[in-house]
Amino acid sequence: MRAATLLAITCLVSCRSQQAAVTTGNADSLSFAEVASADSADSVLLKPRVVTEPTVVVFWLAAADTFSADDQAEALDELNSTTEGIAATLARHNIKLVPTNSDTIYVALPNRQRRTILLTGVDYPFGYVLVEPGAAERILAGLYADDELLDEVEAYFDLPTSDSADAKPRIST
Fold this sequence. Notes:
The chain is 31% helix and 21% strand. It has helices at 2-14, 69-92, 146-156, 162-166, and strands spanning 49-51, 55-60, 96-100, 104-109, 113-118, 126-131, 138-141.
């Protein structure tokens, strides 16, 4: 899983390019773990995501090019580490984890409708979008500490907190 995460985040950075055209196809089936390295001119990551189930979208937009190479590398390392830290929790709760370089995400709605989420203009050109179809999305732009991101995910998806999962029942006498 660590290698797949590293590969996907590396692909996010190397696949930065212009804004992609809107897709009209069916729901996106590319998962975070299935992303293979690709030439930056030929990237599936530039196609806007269509979210049909509970999903955490990791985004890295072309605007990240405005950061220095050192700042980009540091942000990428932190984003990669934090993403790896929540991957097991997401898998345990059947929440999809997918990357994108597109500034547009679509949420599938009933009657073949779609709701658009635009990432242009967010504070940082990288971060996370928490999406539960039928609910408002939560955009987490920038870098988050491992525990902060886990708290955000647990609160948004209404998951049992990691503290309560590790806590042993107290026996009173």
